[in-house]
């Protein structure tokens, strides 16, 4: 119990409530960032609390305004993305929501890649549409089409993914950023699939770099989180929104993502290597009609991937069409997997497979999915860190059950 409490001669109930809390600072530095599991912060000088409530940098007063553990994560993400600052959110969707809120208002237009994650499309249509923010979906790889829409005016934000979900098309980030800024728009890039290990969109001119940190940044399937890396000024704008909306990331979750970041280079290196092995094996399997992987010369974005990514590394996502597949056959394939997990996520240390028709793009109509190139037989595979021969053996076993 602190000395000042001892002098108060407190009774038992008061001692039970306060004993052991708020120890004096020590001359010691922990090796890893501690989990600051507290909702509020106190100051001996009440003027410091006043400054904190006024938004002073580097001081904390309330969990919705900031937390030292979460700040440590934000510092790390900003460093990896080579940006001035970053802000953490309770999920990737919360990060997207706040980013769009900070850029657009009623009467504005957004340009969005037509092959975004399905829930992002739903967010744009069902949340921002009724608010009077118009979204025009474009082929983000067709820069002439993008410029035509920019010329129509009122575009405040362009939204795309570095590697699209689920067809893995790679965006020409430098060209798109130049085009956006020429017409006075900002560029927001979802970098979840690529991670800063492969590419850092902000270095090519992106104004916001968004992550579902649930995926590769944390990497172990044990936390839901999001983040945006940007300038210090825009980070302040996003934080002001988040203080009101309340999509804050808790300190326990921040600690898990921060811990996961330590092994991001090791995991991504192995996963990229495994993905190449798996993609080339799938290409030669008679049950597979088509393989989508930027590392294949036949992929439409191969040249862009070679230009933007480190030599020989193309990410750890592989998608493929099973020949003549129906939903029933896909379900049988998923059910037959023994090592690979049929899970509605990606980027973990273990391999995971998802059926977009059932999960990520369930909210789109069959016609809309077909227009995007997402057929009934499309499967998305997140390649893990397991031995690639075991991954391939599991795929071979499951495919044999439906052929």
What can be said about this structure in brief?
With 403 residues, this protein is of the alpha/beta class. Helices cover 40% and strands 14% of the residues. Helix 4 (68-81) runs parallel beside helix 11 (251-261), helix 5 crosses helix 10 (232-245) and helix 7 (143-151) runs parallel beside helix 8 (173-182).
Shape: globular
* Major β-sheet profile: 7 strands, mixed
Q: Helix segment count?
A: 16
Using only CA atoms, what is the Rg?
24 Å
CATH-defined topology of the largest domain = Aspartate Aminotransferase, domain 2
Could you give the distance between the termini? 70 Å
Report the sheet-strand fraction. 5-15%
CATH homologous superfamily annotation of the largest domain:
Type I PLP-dependent aspartate aminotransferase-like (Major domain)
User: Which bin fits the share of residues in helices?
Assistant: 25-40%
The strands making up the biggest β-sheet line up spatially as 1-7-6-5-4-2-3
What structural category characterises the helix and strand content? alpha/beta
Number of individual domains: 2
Number of strands: 12
């Amino acid at each position: 119990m602190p000395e000042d409490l001892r002098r108060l001669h407190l009774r038992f109930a008061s001692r039970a409530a306060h004993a052991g809390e708020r120890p004096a600072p020590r001359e010691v530095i922990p090796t890893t960032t501690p989990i600051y599991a507290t909702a509020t912060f106190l100051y001996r000088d009440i003027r410091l609390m006043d400054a904190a409530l006024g938004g002073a940098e580097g001081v904390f007063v309330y969990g919705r305004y900031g937390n030292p553990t979460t700040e440590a994560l934000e510092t790390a993400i900003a460093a990896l993305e080579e940006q001035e600052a970053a802000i953490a959110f309770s999920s990737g969707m919360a990060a997207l929501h706040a980013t769009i809120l900070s850029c657009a208002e009623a009467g504005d237009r957004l340009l969005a890649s037509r092959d975004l994650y399905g829930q992002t499309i739903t967010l744009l249509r069902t949340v921002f549409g009724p608010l009077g923010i118009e979204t025009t979906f474009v082929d983000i790889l067709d820069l002439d089409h993008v410029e035509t829409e920019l010329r129509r005016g009122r575009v405040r934000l362009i939204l795309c993914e570095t590697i699209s979900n689920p067809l893995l098309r790679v965006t020409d980030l430098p060209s798109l950023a130049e085009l956006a800024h020429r017409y006075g728009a900002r560029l927001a890039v979802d970098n979840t699939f690529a991670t800063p290990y492969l590419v850092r969109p902000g270095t090519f001119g992106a104004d916001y770099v968004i992550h579902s940190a649930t995926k590769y940044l944390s990497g172990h399937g044990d936390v839901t989180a999001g983040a945006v890396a940007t300038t210090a000024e825009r980070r302040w704008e996003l934080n002001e929104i988040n203080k009101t909306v309340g999509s804050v990331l808790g300190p326990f979750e921040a600690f898990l993502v921060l811990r996961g970041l330590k092994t991001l280079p090791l995991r991504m290196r192995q996963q990229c290597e495994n993905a190449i092995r798996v993609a080339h094996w799938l290409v030669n399997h008679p049950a597979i009609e088509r393989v989508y992987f930027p590392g294949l010369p036949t992929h439409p974005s191969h040249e862009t991937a070679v230009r933007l990514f480190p030599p020989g590394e193309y990410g750890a996502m592989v998608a493929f069409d099973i020949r003549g597949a129906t939903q029933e056959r896909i379900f049988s394939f998923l059910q037959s997997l023994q090592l690979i997990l049929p899970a509605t996520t990606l980027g973990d240390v273990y391999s995971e497979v998802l059926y977009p028709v059932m999960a990520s793009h369930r909210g789109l109509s069959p016609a809309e999915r077909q227009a995007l190139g997402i057929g009934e037989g499309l499967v998305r595979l997140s390649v893990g860190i397991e031995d690639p021969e075991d991954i391939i053996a599991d795929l071979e076993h499951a495919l044999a059950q439906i052929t």
